[in-house]
Specification:
By secondary structure, the protein is α/β, with parallel strands linked by helices.
């Protein structure tokens, strides 16, 4: 029950890593404001006033102000922000349009910046130790062909995390990043063909594709008081994907 009496905001909460994070926070006692474009799946009732479903677009410039106003009206307390929402656009570099680029940046980077700014204002006023956790990707450091806008946003997110951590540290707020590897989510499932899955399992040293719950565990660790002395860090949760330079199926003599 690490989050008893704490209030958390989670984006991308309807499915995948966001839903797993919301579920874990609720199970450990938090009150959660769960944000997604649409809430399409039912939730088990965690108890009166514990789960607030907000249908908001993190890419909408008006969303940060809407969220801030609602939090101030209903709780005036925010202890955790998990920026999980993200989108992936697959297209060759030479075919990416300006619209493709702008939409991916709006969700994966600009939305994170301004939602974090809105929530951090409340955290600063509370004068209590807040936790912001951003969700990057192994492809911030390992190339992913045909996903240039996505990889650009994840690299930018990690740099932004460090700067946010520096500026918010004097207020006792930590800002960290989780860097997932291959994970089965609503976003990744369409591209995980049998061939891709075989290749991933051959490439990943631990030989597994993660369920969302494994990533949520790392997010909740960084969101908890157990990580009180960690800020500006990026935690790999990728089965060894990023660190491994071996050649699958071969070895040096």
């Amino acid at each position: 029950m690490r989050f008893s009496d704490k209030v958390a905001v989670v984006t991308g909460a309807d499915a995948g890593i966001g839903r797993a994070t919301t579920t874990r926070l609720l199970a450990e006692g938090a009150t959660v404001y769960a944000i997604d474009l649409r809430h399409t799946q039912p939730w088990q009732d965690p108890g009166p006033g514990r789960l607030h479903l907000l249908e908001l677009d993190v890419a909408d410039p008006g969303t940060p102000a809407q969220l801030e106003a609602r939090l101030r009206a209903e709780t005036r307390q925010v202890d955790v922000l998990a920026n999980v929402a993200g989108i992936l656009h697959i297209a060759p570099f030479l075919e990416v349009t300006r619209g493709d680029w702008d939409r991916v940046l709006a969700v994966n980077l600009t939305g994170v910046f301004f939602l974090s700014q809105a929530v951090a204002r409340i955290m600063v006023e509370q004068q209590t130790a807040g936790r912001i956790v951003n969700v990057s990707s192994v492809h911030a450091v390992v190339s992913e062909p045909n996903a240039a806008p996505y990889t650009a946003t994840k690299g930018g997110l990690e740099a932004m995390t460090r700067t946010m951590a520096s500026e918010l540290a004097p207020h006792g707020i930590t800002v960290n990043c989780v860097r997932p590897g291959a994970t089965r989510t609503r976003m990744s499932e369409p591209i995980y063909t049998e061939q891709i899955v075989r290749s991933l399992k051959a490439k990943i040293p631990l030989g597994k594709i993660a369920p969302p719950e494994w990533i949520a565990s790392a997010i909740c660790y960084l969101a908890s008081d157990e990580a009180c002395y960690t800020t500006g860090a990026c935690l790999d949760v990728d089965g060894g994907y990023a660190m491994d330079g071996s050649l699958p199926g071969t070895a040096y003599a």
